Amino acid sequence: MAYNLLKGKRGIIFGALDENSIAWKTALSVHAEGGKFVLTNAPIALRMGQLKTLAEETGSEIIPADATNEEELKDLVEKSMEILGGKIDFVLHSIGMSINVRKGRSYMDEDYKFTQKGWDVSALSFHKVMQSLYKMDAMNEWGSIVALTYMAAQRTFPDYNDMADNKAYLESVARSFGYFFGKEKKVRVNTISQSPTATTAGQGIKGFTGFINYAEKMSPLGNATAQDCADYTITLFSDLTRKVTMQNLFHDGGFSNTGVSQEVIDEFDN
Length: 270
Description:
By secondary structure, this protein is α/β, with parallel strands linked by helices. The protein has helices at 22-32, 43-48, 51-58, 70-84, 99-102, 112-135, 163-185, 208-218, 226-237, 262-268, and strands at residues 10-14, 36-40, 61-62, 88-93, 139-149, 188-194, 248-251. A seven-stranded parallel β-sheet has the order 3-2-1-4-5-6-7, with helices on both faces.
């Protein structure tokens, strides 16, 4: 059911790749709630994904941009405001990549060139996106910027590798930039710490199937799906959450506050 929560609002959605991605489902939900937006991803991701299908379904335009490139981000922001007819009300940063994970390099045997590239794409890009928006005064007052993260920023999950470090940095950027964006522009900045989710990127992590099943048993409400996350993101884009900022918001069915569940105890109590 749609409530027109985003009627008249304009935004930019980073990172939609295919129908399994959280950014893809968020775009559909934003469209259903009356919001308009530009879709963007790196040129290589555009070749790999099916973003044209999403653009057609939502009446949106696609602007290729490398989120690590400041000039391309500036061009993206300028074109987005031109296409949408005004300043931006919401932004979703749904970007993450670990070359070390892709190449099978363990955390104790990182290739630091891979590490630096992954950090730039997954974490520093969030600062670059917000700095571009800030310097260009591109956000409307009470706008909302959201980035997706994971609890490996706080707890150790062995196979999450250097992405855990990237997510910790990402969350710190949200707090630090969120202070200035809120103080000077009345713009909200938050991160959503999502359950393990069966996206194309998520399934590339070693042991993912076992862990998602474990998280399901640990979470009182079960794992939050990609659609659940999209719905939650809509509330953060809306005017209903105007005073929520600089928060890392756990959206994980209660996993983050559960020491152990009865289902997990039963697995070992025999």
